[in-house]
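Colleagues,

Please find the record for the two-part complex below.
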Amino acid sequence: MELFAILLFGIAATTTALFVIFSKNTVHSALWMVANCFTVAVLFLLLNSQFIAILQIIVYAGAIMMFILYAIMMLNLKKAGDEDQVKNNLAPGRLLILGLFFIGLIILGIGFSPQALKGGMGADALAGFGEINLVANYIFSKGLIPFELVSVLLTAAVVGAVYLAKKD
Amino acid sequence: MIDFFIIPVIKVIILFTVCLLIVAYTTWAERKILGHIQLRYGPMRVGWHGLLQPIADGIKNFFKEEVIPDNADKAVFLLAPVISISVAIILLAIIPFGEPFTIFGKKITLWLANPSIGILFILGFATLGSYGTILGGWSSGNKYGYMGGLRASAMILSYELSLAFAVISIIMMTGSLSLVDMVSAQHGLWNVVKQPVAFFVFLISGTAELNRTPFDMPEAESELCCGYNVEYSSMKFALFFLAEYTHMFVFASLVTTLFLGGWHGPFLPGIVWFFIKTFAIIFVCIWVRATFPRLRYDKVMKLEWKFLLPVALANVIVTGAVMALV
């Protein structure tokens, strides 16, 4: 049952991700991205981590995609360039490389998955895995310094972006 | 079987009917109250004091012609009202309406679900609801709709922040994200007494998230001639309308749950207290609409970024400091 659900939503995640790339309309791409965030959130739920799943929805589907949509609408992007150009970019050679890349990914995935399910990350260890208390305890004790450093880095990035966007 | 399937299904059906009836009659209450505040009667013709007006409106909307504009993005145009209404109704699932009671030896809870992520679920999905507004405005292929959608996304992006920070101070005091725990924690003293600042920040940013006057930027009739839903007709318009009022009901019940002690109150049963408080908040929303004029767009943004957000942040810091010291 769980395996079936994971397979279903894994396929859904991949399909929506492909639609993000192949939609010609930028707003449609953004919408497929929202759908993709949702399927990934469901995958997190299946891994027993409610908190990370809802963060995926709040942060990515809610806030970040809203920003992207806002930016797309502000800039009023029209449909992506000529269709010929898109077709030229997807010449057979590139498709072949892309296909090989995917086959490689699948081999890697199959190779790694049985090991990942054994040992330290078995069903028992996963039971309380994504509970908010555990995440909070980790962030505010062991992970405190990296966490604060990342926030300083992000603040610096925001200040830098404001400076770059400013026209004297 | 009974615990996992039949009881939840009955609960869903009751919740759905009761809440949609309440939502339909909120539209009636709004027109009546606005009317009386402005010294007129409001709807009077259909039924006693217009009591059947919402039903008449519903039937009328069913039989109106559906119009899809030529330069609309058809798929998204049809999807937008669906997103709006479904996300609004999902939110009802985790609101605790009253204390659990026992019937035929079974413990019945008056909430559909009590996930450990509780309030985050509401914050997350409430934001998603505004996708309906934004996409509806964008896909109409109409400049007023477009501006409305743009404004809706800017409003959500800004007011979501102060809303979340107001909630964080409550989470800090309760030590849990679950709405049921939050209500139980207010057994003695309501949070509105302990956290007055968070209460007002939540009330103001909530009104802004609902897109109601004085913050109804996305539909501002005098500037955008109805904004994001200008091209919608018939049942699709009705769905937007319904979603807006469902959001209002959810917002009022959230204020009740977070700040007004939920189902706690003397003498009467819990669920009665819950609805009394919720309707009081809905009345306040309508009262505010009748009292204040619409703010100018830049002032709405200034209010959030230069006043509400710093106040909410300061409130979180003060709450943390007091909790650490006491």
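The two ends of chain A are 60 Å apart (CA to CA).

Comments are welcome before we finalize the supplementary table.
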